[in-house]
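#lab-general

N.A. 3:47 PM
ok so I finally got the sequence cleaned up, no stray characters, all 405 residues accounted for. can someone with queue access submit it? mine expired

B.Y. 3:52 PM
send it over

N.A. 3:53 PM
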Amino acid sequence: MKIAYIVNTYPRASHTFIRRELQALERRGFDIHRFAMRSERDSLLDPADLAEDDRTEHVLKTGFAGLVCSALRWMLRKPRHSAQAFVAAMRCGAAGAGGTPGTGGRLRHMIYLVEAAHVARRCASLGVTHIHAHFGTNSATVAMLARLMDGPSYSFTVHGPEEFDAPLGLCLGEKMQHAAFTVAISSFGRSQLYRRAALADWGKLHVVHCGIEPEKFPTPSAPPKGGPRLVAIGRLAEQKGFSLLIEAMALAAPTNPDLHLTLVGDGPLRPEIEAMIAANHLETRITLAGWQDEAGVRQALANAQALILPSFAEGLPMVVMEAMAAGRPVIATAIAGVPELVVSGETGWLVPAGDAQYLAEAMTTLAQTPHTDLVAMGTAARARVLERHDINTEAAKLATLIGQA
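B.Y. 4:20 PM
back already:
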């Protein structure tokens, strides 16, 4: 079966879960064409990402004139369908005209319409029968408009939290209406889609988890003794809560003399976080490791006793899955889909979001937990994530849905 995947920017270092899903579907016999609006090749370091970039058709590289000519060729063949798509683009553009980041106004939706016509024409020439988009933002908009222009059927995966921040501006309800099906990555995510979908579309909403490749996580080593030694992994951006984590470290440090945190990742808040570390005299307690590839992340997890996730908003983070697969318990804020995976007291500890004191207390609890109990929690965490997030199992669910579409 020939299908296409469409993502706004692909590949990205943070989108390895999409690559895993694609490859798992290809192992099941799918022939997949990759579309992305743009490339971030200059920022890619992982050879696997560079190879994926080579396989991806980046729409905007066609150039403005080429895109317009391609779009007009399709629209002239499909005038009635194109008029229908134009009306939908105007409607969604009006909904997104209020300035909500990422939603866009009518002018931006005219660009999406041109991109969609080009994608529909390319799909026809390639023999693509279905499009799957990742994220409910502009990639799903392009897929929907292509469908309205008599292109292939489509589906899309919603991750959150961005889609849930602006559901009306993103026309999520209309996208779900026209889609063959819509996927959420957690039950919490599906509950948010229920809020925006017409009751008649509820049967088209499904949960398919992002997955890990079990073979890349062999039987883990035991967590190190002493410490506690924590690792936090993610983009240094507002929603991840790392500034609050620095506050929590300052609260926990006086009663935990061997407490240490390794912070893996980079982003716009790095100067602010560096200043907070200095202001709280935590230079010897916190290591900023910067961006790391998959091997570097696995090593950081191996060197830690637990992952700590202080996020304010999430979907269901891949880093939690990877930490649990590596046999490490998780300290996390009880938000979004996280409690569906982390069981407090069994595979880690859940704390209320936005409270540094609770994070600090969880660090102290970790320090007081016997090493044998940490090993047992890590074992339970690994078993739980391998049962619920094997990429081959999850891809099989998605393959069934695509086949039915």
